[in-house]
Amino acid sequence: MIFKRPDKLRNSLTRTRQSVFGRLAGLLTQTELTEETWEELEALLIQADVGVETTVALVSSLRERAAREHIRQADRVQALLQEEMTALLNVPGRSYLPGEKRPLSVVLVVGVNGSGKTTGIAKLARYHQLRGERVLLAAGDTFRAAAIDQLKVWADRLGIELIAHQAGGDPGAVVFDAVGAALSRRVDVLIVDTAGRLHTKHNLMQELRKIHSVASRQLPGAPHETLLVLDATTGQNGLAQARTFGEAVDVTGLFLAKLDGTAKGGIVFSVVRELKLPIFFVGTGEQAEDVAEFRASEFVEGLFDQGGL
Amino acid sequence: MFDNLSNKLQDIFKKLSGKGRLSEADVDAALREVRLALLEADVNFRVVKEFVARVRERAIGADVMKSLSPAQMVIKIVHEELITTLGQPRQLDLSGNPPHVVMLAGLQGSGKTTMAAKLALRLRQSGQRPLLVAADTHRPAAITQLEVLGRQLDITVHSEGDKVPPPRICANAVDRARKGGYTVVLLDTAGRLHIDEEMMQELEEVVRLTKPGEVLLVVDAMTGQDAVRVAEEFHRRVPLTGLILTKVDGDARGGAALSIRSVTGVPILFLGTGEKTDAVEAFQPDRLASRILGMGDMLTLIERAEAAFDQQQAQKMEQKLRTATFDLEDFLEQMQQLKKMGPLQQILEMVPGFSSIKDQVPEDTTEKQMKRSEAIIRSMTPAERRDPRIIDGSRKRRIARGSGVSVIEINQLLNQFRQMQRMMKQASTGRGASSLMGRFGL
After folding, report:
1. Contacts of A286 in chain B (CB under 8 A)
2. Which is the most buried residue in A109, A231, B372, B433, by most CB within 10 A?
3. Are the C-beta atoms of residues A303 and A273 closer than 8 Å to each other?
């Protein structure tokens, strides 16, 4: 493993175990299946932000299966639920930056304000660096005060070059220059930061669309990934965010940020269920190294893991 | 959604008997829907349970008011209970001797720095002398961000770089305020996780050294079920005096505010409503209650309209309507303002009762029509725009060539415009007002 992901992920998930899912796991290993078990199960999923609709869908399909397979033990149900939840998150046929190695891969990073885009970009940059790739950053957030400075600090720390214009400038122009620079400097990956925007702001979403098309006009096929950064603390609004950003710029995958808190990002179950978007990365801290490739089985397993309790 | 909730409740009561008085069965059926609506709004599961129990107690056996249907009665009770739970608005407490210390705390990305600047501006407008304090030494460029905002607003920012411990910076800032005649000290602390022991200790130290009169938790309106745990933990470490809900300009229903208010009892003070430094509002319980119940769409629509139409133009337009001098030039201007609000499809979706109509309108037709109308009007001479009655057959053919449409379409547009003029004349004389409102489901 090239970086400390198992520890980090495990640590952050330990806290989950001790909280909602810990209780869930405790509950499931106990006794026989009763009506109460199912109700409690629903309650616990809802408290993990899984959302009413997805919870009901998960639990009722589990109930059917338990009836079909004559399962009466509650702990067997845990294994089944784990299976169903993992299956739900495993979007088939899509990996991060798939296919043959390109001369230049462009990754566009989008999301609402404060979701963790800039920190997420530092992590992505580090991830690519550790894979031995040359990275260039583009400071596409020209709006928020000191957003450029923030990215600059990260770029300097990581020893990466940054393409930036003046604050208040046109983000489309930044992207145009950055793609040009990335091509002539022969870097492997260009990561583009964008200003945080609420998905309900029509004109800002139009601006994002423009940034996207500037990239694709200059380099056919770009951006090769458009990542939506989703804050793990976010509740049901996460689904609306994913929908609207998806409509505007064709989001190709998710970066689940801030997974080191006690919130567990249960909203991804709804997002993946409806939009079939893969989750590529999880952010687990404030350092550039605090990032892990997302693995559904690990994510779900960790939620149920009894070890250490 | 609110629309949705009332419809659902109406359906339930249609099937049930017990008119005149709410029976237990009626109420329970209705409360299942209420429960769902609250969970969808991210109100914490436990809080929903308690809340629904309270509503149940009030609702069972309640007399249905003559003017209301049973469904409306339940909503009325729910709404009232929500308002009671959300509590009364409160101003910042600036009693006692200045400088008053106000500390902002919260998770990463909740919007503390932006809110600090907004509060500073608001305080200055009310005659205070605010001092902003850059106490976030952790996030890269957080200090610069506050300094930039301070420069924009011409408000002093106290910063000592990122090497001095934040509690020290805050204490120094209070000293500086005392000597320099600043009346309010606003501490912008670093975003932190409630389970980060070291960082929470730092926060306790800031409180110990500066004795803030207000400790405000800044919470993102999009926060999910975990809001309760975050707030409880912050409250345990640094007793909170108030709550600020940010990013309310989105479409999140903001149930977190209800959850936090319920479990901590801390009052809600302000709402952050945009990225500009003046986008902050005092909390209004009825408005937030409607939003949590899902009426936020309508509010968003109103907000968008307010943002797109500037006040002066609206007044000018009103004048024109009253004097019936509304011409095609104004028609064009109105269309352009409407465009600023976003796609018509999206707008229709937000108007109660219109969401079903929206599905019948094929995507983009309205947009295309508007573009076409714009092209037609732009192909007219100023004289034609001012007085469309002069547009005869030959002028129509010229306009058709200029805008690339058929003469029929020009006739259609002119007809539409005449109808609109007539409607407006009626509205301005008061006769047509009710039918006009009816059109928009108000």
Report:
1. 108, 138-139
2. A231
3. no
Q: Which CATH number, 3.10.310.30, 1.10.260.30, 3.40.50.2000, 1.10.287.70, labels domain B302-439?
A: 1.10.260.30
Determine which of A202, A209, A255, A290 to mutate to test the interface with B (most B C-beta atoms within 10 Å).
Answer: A202
Residue pointed to by tokens 């990260």: A154
Location of each CATH 1.20.120.140 domain in chain B: 3-86
Mutate which: A12, A198, A230, vs B, most B CBs within 10 A: A198
Domain B100-287 indexed as CATH 3.40.50.300: yes
The token pair at B158 is 């106290």
Neighbour count for residue A18 (Cβ, 10 Å) = 13
What are the C-alpha distances in Å from B385 to residues B317, B330, B400, B420, B428? Answer: 16, 9, 15, 15, 22
Any A CB within 8 A of B4 CB: no
Q: Kindly report, residue by residue over A77-124, the tens digit of the pLDDT.
A: 878 898 899 999 998 778 899 877 789 999 999 999 999 999 999 999
Chain A touched by B277 (CB under 8 Å): no
CB-based contact, B298 to chain A, within 8 Å: no
Cβ of A263 and B250 within 8 Å?
no
Gap from A223 CA to chain B (nearest CA, Å): 25
Q: Tell me how many helices (H) and strands (E) chain A has.
A: 12, 8
H-assigned helices in B60-96: 70-86
Residue of A nearest to B108 (CA): A114
| A125 vs A291: CA distance, rounded Å | 10
- Distance from the Cα of B182 to chain A's closest Cα (Å) equals 24
CATH topology of domain B3-86: Four Helix Bundle (Hemerythrin (Met), subunit A) (1.20.120)
Q: How far apart are the CA of B344 and the nearest CA of chain A, in angstroms? A: 11
Write the ipTM: 0.88
Closest Cα partner for B225 from B35, B374, B47, B403?
Answer: B47
Give the tens place of pLDDT for each residue, A188-240: 999 999 999 999 888 899 999 999 999 999 999 999 999 999 999 999 999 99
Pairing of strands A135-140, A161-163: parallel
Q: Which segments of chain B belong to CATH 1.10.260.30?
A: 302-439
Contact between A236 and B40 using a beta-carbon 8 Å cutoff:
yes
Alpha helices of B110-141 — where are they, by DSSP H? Answer: 112-125
Q: How far is A252 from chain B (nearest CA, A)?
A: 22
Residue of A nearest to B307 (CA): A201
- C-beta atoms of B220 and A143 within 8 A: no
CB atoms closer than 10 angstroms to residue A223: 25
Closest CA to B235 of B259, B254, B215: B215
**Global pTM value:** 0.81
N-terminal to C-terminal alpha carbon distance within chain A? 26
Interface contact A233-B41, CB threshold 8 A: no
Strand order across the A189-194 sheet: A161-163, A135-140, A189-194, A105-110, A225-231, A253-257, A279-283, A291-293
Residues A86, A302 contacting (CB under 8 angstroms): no
Contact at CB, B222 and A234, closer than 8 angstroms: yes
pLDDT tens, B335-348?
777 776 666 666 66
A-B contacts (CB, under 8 Å): 149
